[in-house]
Amino acid sequence: MDATLLVSAALSGLAVVLVTYLAGRLGGTVGGLLATAPVTTTAALLYYGLDAGNGAAAHAALQGGRALTAALWAMPAYFHILRVSRGGALPVRLALAVTAFLAVFTGGTLALSQIPLPDLAWLLVALATAAFLGLTFLPLRIDAARARSAKTGMRWYEVPLRFLAGAAVVLLVGGRRASSPLLAAAWTVFPGTFVVTLLVMGVERGAAWSARAAQGGVLGVPPLAAYLLTLYLLLPLSDHAAWPWLAQVPAWLAYFAALVPLWRWRQGSLARAAAPHPGAPAKAHF
At what angle do helices 119-136 and 54-62 cross, to 10 degrees? Predict the structure, then answer.
């Protein structure tokens, strides 16, 4: 195992500790958005660029459309497993929901790889899927009143656990790149921070907040697609060892440029949904 992979894994682990700490305090939807930020994606793609060349990293980024599409359908699976298991023990519910997420994400990625569409077209499919789920999945209401009270901070033993969970994603990419390049590329472009954050929020604040974070993940996919497309266009322009790092600047700018309007739209939607409508029946919660 080379030093580049270990450094990338360490950076990913530190990012997961920070993101999950903030997500547990800023709310479910915000947590989902933070969890889809391409932090582990950046670390993994930097590893690809330094290890196999910028062209290979650009190709891995472009392959992200299949992974993003599969991940989008995994988010409602996670949400609905928590919904139908209401009343069960929280650890069991979270374990079932994560299993469903990983099964849909992995199976979907493998199934979509059999459909002969260009890689760039899959990014468009992911954007169309996100728009569809934005209209059908995001409006589902969650009873936040059933959430647990937030803890004042991470316990000492949680820090290394979260660090290891984040680092494991990059190590998985490095270990699986030769034996299963398709799945390795999928985990490269879709941030493993998301799955870890869903678990952390479930443990800290309960199933309702964790399910809401899964909804927030839908909003994070279009900005992630903008990030990947920018890297795909820029990475092949130079073979210099520093170029993958420099290309991250415009890629992250593209990410935030797509994120801000979506975030504002979501905030406006939540405000309108919370406003009282005389004579309108109350919406169901879970």
Answer: 40
Distance of alpha carbon 206 from alpha carbon 89, whole angstroms: 11
Q: Give dist(CA 184, CA 35) in Å, integer.
A: 19
d(CA 48, CA 91): 35
The H-or-E segment that residue 251 falls in is helix 243-274
Measured CA to CA, the distance from residue 26 to residue 256 in angstroms comes to: 18
Q: Residue 64 in contact with residue 190, Cβ under 8 Å?
A: yes
pLDDT in tens, 81-114: 998 888 889 999 999 999 999 899 988 988 998 8
Rg over alpha carbons for the chain, rounded to the nearest Å, is: 19
Residue of 37, 35, 32, 64 whose CA lies nearest to 48: 64
Contact 230, 254 (CB under 8 A): yes
70-83 b/e (C-beta count within 10 Å ≥ 16 → b): bbbbbbbbbbbbbb
pTM, two decimals, is 0.79
pLDDT tens column, 29-44 = 666 777 778 877 787 7
Tallying the residues shown for the chain, one arrives at: 286
Six token digits for residue 139? 């409006």
Sequence-distant (≥ 6) Cβ neighbours of residue 79 within 8 angstroms: 97, 137, 140, 211, 214, 215
Angle between helices 207-234 and 64-84 (to 10 degrees): 180
